[in-house]
Design brief:
Length: 206
């Protein structure tokens, strides 16, 4: 994340989730979108210098269902105070990724796919892919008070499905909840989410 901030001119993202609990069954739908722009990146290849403007867009859509194995109060305090919950779940993730590049070179440069960049002219290169990957994982929730929550989640997936060789994800979040009149909760979270994906198909590697 720090490397992305250091090398990018623009970074932006959005993320949200909807959680549903029914008895000990848990369900979640979450989505995330990120965008990073890098302008005038430079590299040297022999006597040729190469510059580029690169836009990377990625989006994830996830759904999982699971079972709550543990749901116990941490102390004998009044109900709704400190509690611990542990879930096991399985689901699927759809990823959409695109890389749009504008390249320019000081001399004629031949790209790995056989196309050439003439000196003084911009060459547009676009790559995109969408794929599905199943995953399994676990989630730990600690309700410290009626409002404050810590959530830890991890999952692994891919399993050679739809070009996805392997995928992993980890989350650590701290959230604050408000109880709505409808009985639902509205929460705002801050934390860290890391996702790694090894995907390769149709000349697109991610």
């Amino acid at each position: 994340f720090i490397d992305i901030l250091d090398s990018s001119d623009t970074v932006f993202g959005l993320m949200g989730a909807v959680d549903v609990e029914y008895n000990r069954f848990v369900f979640e739908f979450n989505a995330a979108w990120t965008m990073a722009e890098v302008s005038k990146a430079g590299a040297a290849f022999g006597n040729t210098s190469l510059g580029a403007d690169v836009d990377v867009n990625s989006a994830w859509f996830e759904f999982f269902g699971g079972y709550r194995l543990v749901d116990n109060p941490i102390t004998l305090a009044t109900p709704g105070d400190a509690r611990v919950a542990f879930d096991l779940f399985g689901g699927g993730r759809v990823t959409a990724a695109s890389v749009n590049s504008t390249l320019r070179a000081s001399t004629t440069l031949t790209l790995p796919d056989g196309r050439t960049i003439a000196p003084g002219l911009d060459r547009e290169l676009d790559r995109s892919a969408e794929w599905f990957e199943p995953f399994v994982g676990a989630r730990l929730e600690l309700d410290l008070t009626e409002h404050w929550t810590i959530t830890l989640r991890g999952d692994v997936g891919g399993f050679d499905v739809d070009g996805s060789q392997f995928a992993w994800q980890g989350q650590a979040l701290v959230g604050y909840h408000w109880r709505l009149e409808s009985g639902s909760d509205l929460g705002v979270f801050a934390g860290y989410r890391a996702i790694g994906q090894d995907y390769e198909e149709d000349n697109f590697k991610w």
